[in-house]
Design a protein that fits this description.
single chain; alpha+beta; three-stranded antiparallel β-sheet; 4 helices
Amino acid sequence: MKKKSGFTALAIILAMLMLAACGGKTYEAVPIQEGVDKCEICNMLIKDDEFAVQLLTKEGKVYKFDDIGCMNEWKTKNASVPVTIEFVRDHASKMWIDLEKAYFAYDASYKTPMAYGLVSFKDKASAEKYISEQGKGKLLSAADLKSHAWERNKAGMDMHHGEGHEQKAHSETDKKGSSH
């Protein structure tokens, strides 16, 4: 009988240790590999810059995007895929931050890779400072993104991916009938 209760106690301790280990899991963003990583939506090469974003699914798959608008489009198209965490970059430091903790400056005229006009920041004060410096824009929280319009300003596309590269890629995509 002692042997059986000792085994049960050991099993309970092991189960508690496993549960404790699972509960404390931290997730980190994966480095961007310039010249290799492509946006899951628009297929553009992703620069290792302040506009790169990524998400991790519950299955452990990482999806990378060149613009937060592309990530939103992917989430809309793949709503049944459970997402564990989303990362954005702080515009000033390029440090990865949890999207849920970030603040955003928005204006349709802000130049971003795919012209969604959203710039992410690690805190509210940094986003407000950016808006003030630009002389225009609106402050958004992560919660505000759920009701954001997600419209693109194609005239304001940032050409930082390479001169003419985006225009060519998007004109080819548009010929195929893509909505992006």
